[in-house]
# Entry
Amino acid sequence: MNTRPSIAIESTDAVVEDVLATTSFIDIHTHLFSPSLGSLGLWGIDELLTYHYLEAELFRFSPVTPEHYWTLTKTQRADLVWKTLFVENTPLSEAARGVIAVLSALKLDTDAKSLDPLRDYFRSQKLVEYIPHVFHLAGITHAVMTNDPLDPEEAGMWKRGIELDPHFPAVMRIDRILNQWSAHHGALSAQGYAAEADGGGASMKEVRRFLADWVVRMKPVYMAVSLEDTFNFPEDDVRTKLFRDAVLPTCREFHLPMSLMIGVRRLINPALRLAGDGAGRADMRAVQNIALEFPDNRFLISMLSRENQHELCVIARKFRNLLPFGCWWFLNNPSIVEEMTRERLEMLGTSFIPQHSDARILEQVIYKWRNTRRTVGPILAQSYKLLAADGRSVTRDDIQRDVNRLFRSNFENWIQRAD
Ligand code: FIX
Ligand code: ZN
# Structure
């Protein structure tokens, strides 16, 4: 006999909505930076409007050429984006509507004719108080960073010593090692790690030493790499050697998960710069081969192509060392988030991480997490209604446990397991 105070089926939506609204999340992948990384951190209206998602949209509406656009100042670019996408046209796209949502949440004019009053507001904010305010509006407690030990500017800051901020956990991003070895093995050698072009000799041992030194310096919660849609594993190449003999052994040594974000087509239109990347369907055999070969490594996995999502759920059912996460980049739109979240709940229960923001500008977490709550709420509620119709009612505590798992403890457990 069920003695728990289960919720009435007609109140499921309201209870799920309230649990989501009153639970703070961990944002497990962003391009935000803690204040101690100074100028790397972006915030304010000019940065919001020159977000590469919006720049891509600008070129579809404005006659301005990318070549001319890049000669403009940041202020001029923001003015042009605002005029084009927000004044002359209705901001209906996900990214444009996001700026409106941010301005509205900050109680600013969402229909401003000039950006100057908005600039005055953002200029008046003191970051140390402003960040907690923005995190509160977004309903997050942590924004996990993306940190590149081979980025000259950022590496210099880390080497000089920065104060670690518990609200901004670090992640060691190693694209330059795994994807651009020929261009960057020299940088390793310049830092005193004997790395050879063909990855031979002491290269793998030296890469392990480099990674270990940076793990000690950065104290990352995981390692990460973004991989192109053509990524295969294994291949007869340096990258496979690096995965096998340097990166994944280091992850095991320091009990760090490895995040694989697969499916980008870099710079399909180079003229757009950061806005020039595209997406492509990847061969999921790479993921299943990695999961099978490295049972003692834990992987966070995000695929960029909508067409890869169902396969990812199937593979995740076969390999407990895979944790699917997020509706990444071009997938972070309600129409696709709905589909992905439904199939994940149907195939994985709550053993996945529904979303990350990928925010590049601080205030973006406000709209990206508002959208996630608005989109995922009804889908989660529907799962409980189906369960009730099949014979099991749930309590608010059940829903709280599930939401905590989806948006916090799945990640916390993944980064802390020392087995
Ligand atoms: O590789 C990544 O971390 C991607 O998320 C970025 O390169 C991309 O530009 C982005 O910000 C997508 O949201
Ligand atoms: Zn990212």
